[in-house]
TrEMBL record:
Name listed for the protein in its UniProt record: Mitochondrial import receptor subunit TOM20
An example Gene Ontology molecular-function term: mitochondrion targeting sequence binding
SUPFAM superfamilies, per the entry: Mitochondrial import receptor subunit Tom20 (SSF47157)
Places the protein is found: Mitochondrion outer membrane
Region (Disordered): 156-208
Gene Ontology annotations of biological process type: intracellular protein transport; protein import into mitochondrial matrix; protein targeting; tRNA import into mitochondrion
Keywords of the record: Membrane, Mitochondrion, Mitochondrion outer membrane, Protein transport, Transmembrane, Transmembrane helix, Transport
InterPro entries attached to this UniProt entry: MAS20 (IPR002056), Tom20_dom_sf (IPR023392)
Domain of life per record: Eukaryota
Regions of compositional bias (Basic and acidic residues) in chain numbering: 199-208
């Protein structure tokens, strides 16, 4: 058997596949134009797909909300760092972990948002950090982070239990936009921690 035989077979197979596809495309277009029943069937299929997608999206949101509530409870039970040095190291660690998890796919987005929230609660200027997050954190993780901060605010309003950690200052979208850098490239959360030494120094100053 010559070496060209497999190539001829592959070429013939591809030609048959292309012909079949073109034939179906012509048939599909003809039926779509001339058959009302065919069009009704297409609409039903599209509706089924849309309903299934909506149900999946709703289920995913409910699952994420449940995971966020569980994450918030776990965070509230944690003992946060107290000294400025510990807080800065904790901040950098949590941001790095949040960034890493954000790249691993949708199943890690809640965990990523939880780590960004942990960093947020020890940062001296939470509105400033939220503005940076809004610019550099992936939108799905950002949305989960905002939901988590809202949950923490609701939890505090309902009366935090023993061991609960006061949430970061709540902010509206307008507040966050005002806190965002007006020009220039957005720094990463890591660079924010490294470039805000004066903010960490403020933590060590005695309250008046």
């Amino acid at each position: 058997m010559s070496a060209s035989s497999p190539l001829r077979i592959a070429g013939a197979t591809a030609a048959v596949a292309v012909t079949g596809f073109l034939g179906y495309a012509v048939y599909f277009d003809y039926m779509r134009r001339h058959s009302s029943e065919f069009r009704k069937g297409l609409k039903k299929q599209h509706k089924k797909v849309a309903v299934a997608a909506e149900a999946q999206s709703k289920a995913e949101k409910e699952r994420n909300s449940k995971l966020l509530r569980e994450a918030l409870i776990a965070i509230q039970l944690e003992t946060p760092p107290t000294t400025p040095e510990q807080q800065e190291a904790y901040f950098q660690e949590q941001v790095a972990e949040g960034e890493k998890l954000a790249t691993l796919g949708p199943e890690y987005q809640v965990q990523s948002a939880s780590h960004f929230y942990r960093a947020l609660r020890v940062y001296p200027q939470p509105l400033e950090l939220l503005g940076i997050y809004q610019r550099v954190v992936p939108p799905p993780v950002w949305a989960l982070l905002i939901e988590l901060t809202s949950l923490s605010g609701a939890s505090a309003a309902a009366g935090p239990g023993a061991g609960a950690i006061p949430p970061p200052a709540q902010a509206s979208v307008a507040d966050i936009d005002d806190a965002s850098p007006i020009s220039g490239d957005a720094p990463s959360p890591n660079s924010a921690s490294q470039g805000s030494g004066t903010e960490w120094e403020k933590l060590s100053e005695p309250a008046e």
